[in-house]
Design goal:
This protein has 267 residues and is mainly α. It has eleven helices and no strands.
């Protein structure tokens, strides 16, 4: 949602669009750096605590964006913070929970869970655009942070039950599979990593600038919500179907189960 406010920051602070784009670079770079550590922590800390702290931290980081004073480094620092702490509530951690709680329908469960990413990104622009138009971008950022904060107790309560499945899976006899070291030395790992990177690279450029381009053309708030939502809704079903079909053809177990979740979490 950073790109949703580019036009407002340009107008109020006089920042160049290229400078604001550095915020997205900081966010996704921080996510990439923190992802391995988030996976390591998910093996040692209960998901309830890990995800709960992460969600509260993301909400705090978003709220602090509403207090920007015109110094670009403030935005870059906050986006870096959100990326670092947000990795612990990314698809990587949730996919590990799903892997532990589902066996026969694991691919279906992962696909349904990832549909939520697209649906939330579709609903948010439709609601946020008119709200920002009426109340300003600062209140829009506050609203986003409050939604995340309000949803945190709900997520935690659901994870309490799911955590039992993780504990049972950890006490069960471990399945045969590659270690992390074996996985990163395999040819398949690098082919998949490069393929997903090349796939997401143009998509990130499009999604990251689409709303801003529409605002440049003086699109109305309802149009922003409609077009932004349509793009995200198109991501939801294909992403879920891709995960389900891919799980059928890729048999991972043991230590590389988390690797699979991290790769498909890029959807």
């Amino acid at each position: 949602m950073v790109t949703f406010f580019i036009k407002d920051w340009e107008s109020e602070f006089g920042w160049a669009r290229g400078s604001i784009a550095l915020a997205a670079v900081c966010l996704f770079s921080a996510l990439a750096i923190a992802a391995p550590f988030a996976g390591w922590l998910s093996d040692r800390i209960a998901a309830v605590w890990l995800v709960g702290v992460s969600l509260v931290g993301v909400a705090l980081g978003m709220y602090l964006n509403s207090t920007l004073t015109g110094r670009l480094w403030e935005l870059l620092a906050l986006m870096t913070f959100v990326g670092l702490i947000g990795a612990a509530s990314s698809s990587l951690v949730f996919s590990r929970i799903i892997n532990a709680n589902f066996s026969d329908a694991r691919g279906t469960a992962l696909g349904i869970a990832l549909i939520g990413n697209g649906l939330s990104q579709g609903i948010a622009p439709a609601l946020l655009a008119p709200y920002v138009a009426d109340h300003g971008w600062r209140q829009g950022v506050v609203a986003l942070s409050l939604v995340g904060l309000i949803g945190t107790p709900i997520v935690i309560s659901l994870l309490r039950n799911a955590q039992r499945g993780v504990q049972q899976a950890e006490t069960a006899v471990p399945a045969d599979g590659m270690s992390f070291g074996d996985a990163v030395r395999s040819r398949v790992f690098w082919i998949m990593a490069i393929a997903f990177f090349l796939t997401m690279l143009p998509a990130a450029g499009l999604f990251g600038n689409f709303i801003t381009l529409l605002r440049d053309q003086h699109a109305t708030p309802s149009q922003l919500g409609l077009y932004g939502g349509s793009f995200s809704h198109r991501r939801a079903t294909p992403c879920g179907m891709a995960v389900r079909s891919s799980i059928r053809s890729i048999r991972c177990s043991g230590d590389d189960a988390d690797l699979r979740g991290g790769i498909f979490g890029s959807c």
